[in-house]
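Example record for the data management plan.
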Amino acid sequence: MAANENERFDQFAAVLTTELLERTRKNMELLAPEQQPRSRLPFIQTPSFVEFYADLVRVGILPVVLSRRPVRSIVGDVDWRREGREYLLTVLDDRSNAVFTAWDYAWDSLWDERKVGADSAASNAAKPKKGFLSALFGRRNAAKPETKPAGEGEGGVMAGLHSMLTELGERRGFLPLFHEDVRILKGMPRVKPGRLAQAWKEISQYHHQEFYMDEKEQAKPGVTSDCLQKWHYNLPDKIGEFLVIKAAVDLEHVNKPFIGKYIRQSARTQEEAEKGMPYLSIYWKAMSNPAIVHQQHSL
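Corresponding structural encoding:
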């Protein structure tokens, strides 16, 4: 690769890194509650995970993404310093774009533990350097050995991100991850922050209109729940569920009875509902019932 091609690739890598990290950071900030939660929250909604996430992506995910040939072919002759972001946004708007395909591949390839040969890291250019997970998690005081001896000269077993992030959660105060949560991490950069901001604005407005407006201007009962359901099922996997949890933490009248009814209405059985909304169900069980206000009547 010629010097100017190397420079152009470095500029492309910088633009791509900034866009993916900024988009996911904004989404996580929008999903994070402002009030103090009643119990531990999912990883995406916990500040300690958000801080760790950027390093994880830089060290573990992006090297895999940038090593993929279809991604490298995007570089072309674009002036990435001046017009790179605008061009990249057109690429990302294509649902089958090479960046998200490589992004998914990177998370999938690192999610589960796997056997590795003694020289596998050197022979596979699409993998991050051997030991990167141990070094990263070690810096964060949540170290777990990345490799387990499997015999003399046989390599070992490389721990996956699922188990390592679950262990990290025990130390950093977020809930254990479900195995299928890799879909959440894969889907985060696909969500445009503006859409998430619009969803929360709409939910907050309906909550205000239903519970705080004068009787003449008050919205009909149930509009807050309807709005939550609308966004719950129109946003990517689990993102809508996290918005409902945010509402349960931040909005006064989205209380335990409200969430219990919301869960029951979302499926044919309680078991089915809890399976479909595991994080919301965990938080609902930790919520306190609202205090009963006793009115005193004067004679």
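Summary line stored alongside the record: Residues 118-123, 139-153, 294-299 have pLDDT under 50 and may be disordered.
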